[in-house]
Amino acid sequence: MTGPTTGADRAARAARTAAVAAGVFRRHDVDFAIARRAAGWTNATWLGGGLAVRVAGSAAAQDLVREARLARLLPSAVGYPAVLDSGETDGFEWVVTREIAAISLDEAWPALDGEQRVAAIRRLWGRARAVHRVAPAAVEAVARPRNPFYAREPAEAEAGLRRLRASGVLTGAEHARLGAALERFWEALAGAPRVLNHGDLSPVNALWDGTDVVALLDFEFAVLAPVQLDVNELVKTAYAPVDGERTRQEQADRARLRETVNELARPHLRTDADVALLIGYAIQLETWGLERELAKPGREAYTDWEPYRMLVSWAHTDGGCYASLLEHRF
Predict the structure, then answer these.
(1) Helix %, strand %, coil % for the chain, to 5?
(2) Quick check: 97 and 81 in contact, CB under 8 A?
(3) What mean pLDDT is predicted for residues 190-215?
(4) Is 49 left (phi over 0), alpha (psi -120 to 50) or beta?
């Protein structure tokens, strides 16, 4: 059994990934000294000399080369940057793409006004829809066999809720109600059509050039699954809880964003089975996120965290924080 990761372990791994990145830049005749680190939590990314170099965060990760193969099958409407090279060095996978002059939509979001946010979400979803239209048979061999945020079977999903109950994070009643929602999810999943989903459709994984969402990135968790998996991430952009007081303008902007998300999401929420899939994916994603955060210092503040607040909303009311979307979906 291995012990917990230490600061020294993390530093050593960071040094190894940087050494791999330096070698990849040299391979493309670019001085690593000019490269700058970009954001990212599963992989390490450097930008410079017109290149974007991503290196797997650990030798155990086996997603980047697969993603490079998948990227070559995506339509241009997705905006994925041109793949120039991919491979493995010292056990670490890496991929090189063209650098795009843009920042993540998540980084840009706080400075966007209400109109820009609406336009960005429409464009983000438009690029996601291009992903969904890819023929499943064309990508089945290169899509991820499973997305780690979601359970493979009912027992795995139930185990996550049971751990939260055992640790006192969920009450018995909350556990029971969330478990019942997951039962409806598994029933609906059996007969649901599958499409290629991005799998992590967050603003973090979209690029904003100042006027437009120009690219979707980071397809390492792309899977064949019902479209409601990606729909949940879309809905979450407008319906996740927010902290603090909102000005009138902020409230108006959020209401407009919700109207837009409702318009985009409702075509995929026409049946009770569609809703069961949406809520089931949402519960699993927030369970995964809450367990991940609880493993870090400061867990006593968990009642303020977004994953907890979303989970208990579904445990106490029909539709939870998505209720206003689901009440009038037709």
Answers:
(1) 55, 15, 30
(2) yes
(3) 96
(4) left
